[in-house]
Amino acid sequence: MKFSDDFIFGGATAAYQCEGSTLEYGKGKVSWDDFLAKQGRFKADPASDFYHQYGQDLKLCKMFGINGIRISISWARIFPDGTGKINQEGIDFYHRVFQECHKNNVEPFITLHHFDTPDTLYQKGDFLNRETVDAFVDYAKFCFEEYKDEVKYWFTFNEIWAVATNTYIEGTFPNGEKYNMTKAFQIMHNMMLAHAKAVVAYKEAGYKGQIGCVQSLEYKYPYDENSLDDIQAAKNEDVLQNQFLLDATFKGYYSTETMEIVDRLVAINNGQLDLRDEDFEVMKKAAVLIDYMGMNYYQSRFIQYYDGENDIHHNGTGEKGTSRFCLKNVGRRMEKEGIPRTDWDWLIHPESMFDMLVRIRQQYPNYKCIYITENGMGYKDEFVDGVIDDAPRIDYIKKHLQYALKAVEAGVNVKGYFVWSLMDMFSWTNGYNKRYGLFYVDYETQKRYPKASAYWYKSVSETKEV
Ligand code: NOJ
């Protein structure tokens, strides 16, 4: 079987990770600027200088059969303070980028928020504060109207789970808080509310395009499938990362089964959630109105029962074997014999992506369509005389694409796949040694070099076969 002729073979990017010019051209500060400066490990300037190099990157897309690109708009380039005064230079920049996309026949898929909340709103509590929900909806409406002739595919948020866990459980995103399950659930809910309000606004205004959100999913298997404790631990993590957000996306409320686990986890932490009836009214509307969901998929997890103390260590250096994730009363992530890992300890387990796609179709039969909005492999690429032979990345992408096609055969409506990432770029918690791109970036010269994977991806896009 082949991919359909209109299948999107895309590449993904995110504003803060590729644009550079983080405080130039009228852009306001975002939550990351001070956080990274304080850490002093690395900064997002000039990154891949997409602000000036987008012409080059879009030409490469065209040359290499890449017919879709995920780009995020930086909220603080449009509204430097999150609300109020607009920055015309930022608005014009994205017009230029979108026009360049169309000139090269590369369909832009636009994300409104990719981890970069404007600092003014971040300081007031980020999305834990409902003022940010309203500010986001205003920003979204502004973009819908401003770019209505150039953008047909919108995503409200990127990876709400990543925001929650990295900000409040793992402590790797600003401001580094750890083990606060209540805040993690609350911010997920508030962001899904903001998503829903933006979706309803988009549809009520009658725009012609499509809209959805991007969730980051990981299949959670019990470490020992015969252990009832491990089965429960896997379910806990699944609800925490997957099911809470999938319920919000496709149902617009949380099922009883979901809430049993959520309530237990929040109670253990002596917390309380603010979930209002009026939130569910709008979320239920959006669940019917969305056109698709974006799924970022990188790995699965094997979870073991755990009742020890919280103990998380994030491998943000690529030293294989240094990760630990043990969450009290939830579970502990384990390695599994026979399943290879990247240098950052991410399990390479492509069949689990198939399991997740089939699960969505079964559990949420009203889903309409799925784009795999990110998938790819972080790798320490070697640059040898202008040649980058990234065979392990080709193998990774190939296997995931094969399972995507298998899912299509099994009846899941998958309409596109975006490699993370189009070109090498800044990594939030690793800086620059973790490369994902189809195109190698020399950060000194900003020159791009196609990797072996780019040539291989081109042939897949041309033949529609993998
Ligand atoms: C998820 C995020 O959307 C992106 O920003 C990140 O760099 C990649 N995955 C790789 O971790």
From TrEMBL:
<dbReference type="GO" id="GO:0033920">
    <property type="term" value="F:6-phospho-beta-galactosidase activity"/>
</dbReference>
<dbReference type="InterPro" id="IPR033132">
    <property type="entry name" value="GH_1_N_CS"/>
</dbReference>
<keyword id="KW-0326">Glycosidase</keyword>
<dbReference type="GO" id="GO:0005829">
    <property type="term" value="C:cytosol"/>
</dbReference>
<protein>
    <recommendedName>
        <fullName>beta-glucosidase</fullName>
        <ecNumber>3.2.1.21</ecNumber>
    </recommendedName>
</protein>
<dbReference type="GO" id="GO:0008422">
    <property type="term" value="F:beta-glucosidase activity"/>
</dbReference>
<comment type="similarity">
    <text>Belongs to the glycosyl hydrolase 1 family.</text>
</comment>
<dbReference type="InterPro" id="IPR005928">
    <property type="entry name" value="6P-beta-galactosidase"/>
</dbReference>
<dbReference type="Pfam" id="PF00232">
    <property type="entry name" value="Glyco_hydro_1"/>
</dbReference>
<dbReference type="InterPro" id="IPR001360">
    <property type="entry name" value="Glyco_hydro_1"/>
</dbReference>
<dbReference type="InterPro" id="IPR018120">
    <property type="entry name" value="Glyco_hydro_1_AS"/>
</dbReference>
<feature type="active site" description="Nucleophile">
    <location>
        <position position="374"/>
    </location>
</feature>
<keyword id="KW-0378">Hydrolase</keyword>
<dbReference type="GO" id="GO:0019512">
    <property type="term" value="P:lactose catabolic process via tagatose-6-phosphate"/>
</dbReference>
